[in-house]
Write a structure and sequence with these properties.
Elements: H1 12-16, H2 20-26, E1 30-34, E2 39-41, E3 50-55, E4 58-63, E5 69-75, E6 80-81, E7 95-98, E8 102-107, H3 109-118, H4 120-146, H5 149-164, E9 166-167, E10 170-171, H6 177-184, H7 188-200, E11 204-207, E12 210-213, H8 216-222
Antiparallel strand pairs: 1-8, 2-7, 3-6, 3-8, 4-5, 4-7, 9-10, 11-12
Length: 232
């Protein structure tokens, strides 16, 4: 799909694609199709530009202490991946794995540099994106230091709900208990116990590996003191 017919209006390329100066650069875009489970960015690998999710879901992670994976965020349609490597070094500082069959748009580093020099509004959009990402990262660090295990798991579930929504109360992103723990900053055992407790309290339901939220407002209330709405 070309950028002009793409429906991801929040994508920073889509927002600026009607500008005459950007048209020739868009023709240099590469498209990558990833199967579920495919790793398309490897931590420590040479940087080869930015990726934009055309369609699909991706998890972005870093390797922490003792080789433990820490999931930094999940991305969906129109979102940017690989920005921490662009302009800041020669290698990627994250891993990126497709959580379902995913289509990605890729602009090489050289192409992006030319685009940013030629299109000021695109440069501003990227600068704003970096500022928002920094704010989210700082908020997450603060929350991790202050939240209980139960609150971290609730926060993770609400984040997934805000980002991908629900169908018949079931979250539209299926994750393993380990992936939830890697995102929430807990252990798999703690996640299993917490989900069991939330289920007994009537706040969630589980169908196999899928999780459903039965009462969003009550979950929000439990973590309201941690500024839930800052990390949307």
């Amino acid at each position: 799909m070309d950028c002009f017919s793409c429906e991801n209006h929040q994508c920073i390329i889509k927002k600026n694609c009607r500008q005459e100066k950007l048209r020739s650069f868009i023709q240099r875009k590469a498209t990558l199709r990833c199967k579920k489970g495919q790793n398309f960015i490897i931590e420590g690998a040479p940087v080869h530009g930015l990726y934009f999710v055309q369609n699909g879901k991706v998890k972005v992670a870093k390797t922490g202490l003792n080789g433990k994976e820490q999931i930094v965020r999940f991305t969906g349609n129109g979102e940017t991946i690989g920005h921490r490597g662009f302009g800041a070094g020669q290698t990627y500082q994250i891993n990126a794995v497709a959580l379902e069959n995913t289509v990605l748009c890729n602009f090489s580093t050289d192409t992006l540099k030319e685009m940013l020099m030629e299109v000021p509004t695109l440069t501003y959009e990227l600068m704003t994106f970096y500022a928002e990402e920094l704010n989210r990262s700082e908020t997450k660090v603060k929350k991790f230091a202050q939240m209980t295990v139960r609150e971290k798991v609730i926060d993770a579930l609400l984040y997934i709900n805000r980002k991908f929504g629900r169908t018949h109360d079931l979250l539209n992103l299926q994750l393993s208990r380990k992936e939830i723990s890697d995102f929430a900053g807990t252990t798999e055992e703690q996640v299993i116990r917490t989900l069991s407790s939330l289920r007994k309290d009537g706040l969630i339901e589980t169908t196999g590996k899928r999780i459903g939220i039965k009462n969003v407002e009550l979950l929000r209330k439990e973590i309201s003191e941690h500024n839930y709405f800052l990390d949307s």
